[in-house]
Design goal:
It contains eight helices and four strands; from the N terminus they run ααββαααααββα. By secondary structure, the chain is an alpha+beta fold.
């Protein structure tokens, strides 16, 4: 290869590298827009320069019940709210037996008799104590004939909290 041909190859290689670098500069800043399709749609609807939060879900439970739910809130509303008023709802979820109770109810165990079949839920007195805590915080609804259910408006938020707790990234 002649010196001239070698120089021509080096210039071509440099031009290709420059084109790649310039292309990288032209790409939009931030994450891939396709990876954040829900976020982009929310931002378009929200039109709030301070941003906001959206969570949504579509869930079929093992019982066959199906829930679709979404909620969005402007960031300013969340940041200025009195968070202490939410402590009861979060505290109710702060016990492993209560989390297990919610999982069992979502899985189809609806009565105290059905829930008592799971030995990790403690004595009948302990079970009623935990059920009362979850009902008071709105995570469970006590219906007729001793039936407990997770209210439909709480199914997706509960699963969102579990997803956050399992993978904060």
């Amino acid at each position: 290869m002649s010196e001239h041909e070698e120089l021509a190859e080096r210039v071509t290689a440099l031009e290709e590298r420059m084109a790649l670098l310039e292309g990288a500069r032209e790409r939009p800043a931030g994450p891939d827009p396709e990876a954040f399709w829900a976020l982009r749609g929310f931002q378009e609807r929200l039109r709030d320069p301070d941003g906001g939060v959206l969570f949504t879900g579509s869930v079929r439970l093992p019982t066959g019940e199906f829930y679709e739910w979404q909620r969005g809130a402007p960031a300013a509303d969340l940041l200025t709210r009195d968070w202490s008023e939410l402590s009861g709802a979060f505290a109710a979820l702060g016990h492993p037996v209560r989390l297990l109770l919610l999982r069992q109810v979502l899985g189809g165990a609806r009565t105290v008799a059905e829930l008592r079949e799971h030995e990790s839920l403690g004595t009948t007195g302990q079970l009623y104590h935990h059920l009362r805590q979850l009902v008071a915080a709105g995570w469970l609804h006590a219906g007729g004939r001793g039936q407990y259910t997770v209210p439909g408006t709480r199914v997706v938020p509960l699963l969102v909290l579990l997803a956050i707790g399992a993978d904060p990234g």
